[in-house]
């Protein structure tokens, strides 16, 4: 009688294992990467899962600490965008080793300015400042200093990466 219970439990478990293994192998197709963006309390993080063409999978989750516009962002890639867009020629920002003084100091100003601008979320404030730099003018600066075309010149991905880089390096 005990062996009957054993068989009754083993058969469904074996079938489930076979079905999961068979259908998660993607039918012999090459592996693919799936990216999901999860938004929690105003910040976003991108979860990347890579599934091999076997029954095993590996998962990697990265968090940028923000991303504005719900898009997430890669801070390491944002450093490249910061450099290639010439941001360092106008802004001081220690993570980029830049010492520009034409625009606000990005090590500390974004956090204080986001609070002063209707207590905006930091990532949203930074994204707005790139897309529409005259929407909020930092104390001690005047309208029209920052070019207004960065928001349209950068791809959505570049914009979110740049925002993630600035958020990660700004003093909270």
List keywords for this structure.
172 residues; alpha+beta; Cytochrome Bc1 Complex, Chain D, domain 2; 3-stranded antiparallel sheet; two-stranded antiparallel ribbon; 6 helices; 5 strands; globular; disordered N terminus
What is the β-strand count?
Answer: 5
- Proper CATH architecture of the domain at 75-169: Orthogonal Bundle
How are the strands ordered across the major sheet? 1-2-3
Average pLDDT for all residues: 72
Main sheet: strands, sense, barrel: 3 strands, antiparallel
Helix content: 40-55%
Q: Give the structural class.
A: alpha+beta
Write out the CATH superfamily name of the domain at 75-169. Answer: Cytochrome c-like domain
Low-pLDDT parts are 2-70
CATH class of the domain at 75-169: Mainly Alpha
CATH topology-level fold name of the domain at 75-169: Cytochrome Bc1 Complex, Chain D, domain 2
């Amino acid at each position: 009688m005990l062996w009957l219970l054993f068989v009754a439990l083993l058969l469904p478990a074996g079938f489930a294992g076979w079905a999961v293994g068979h259908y998660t192998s993607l039918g012999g197709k090459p592996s693919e990467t799936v990216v999901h963006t999860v938004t929690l309390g105003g910040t976003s993080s991108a979860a990347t899962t890579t599934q091999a063409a076997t029954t095993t999978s590996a998962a990697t989750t990265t968090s940028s600490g923000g991303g504005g516009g719900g898009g997430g962002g890669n801070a390491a890639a944002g450093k490249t965008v910061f450099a290639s867009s010439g941001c360092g020629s106008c802004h001081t920002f220690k993570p980029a080793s830049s010492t520009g003084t034409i625009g606000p100091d990005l090590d500390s100003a974004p956090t204080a300015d986001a609070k002063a601008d209707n207590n905006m979320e930091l990532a949203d404030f930074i994204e707005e400042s790139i897309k529409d730099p005259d929407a909020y003018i930092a104390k001690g600066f005047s309208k029209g200093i920052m070019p207004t075309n960065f928001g349209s010149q950068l791809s959505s991905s570049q914009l979110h990466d740049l925002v993630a880089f600035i958020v990660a390096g700004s003093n909270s």
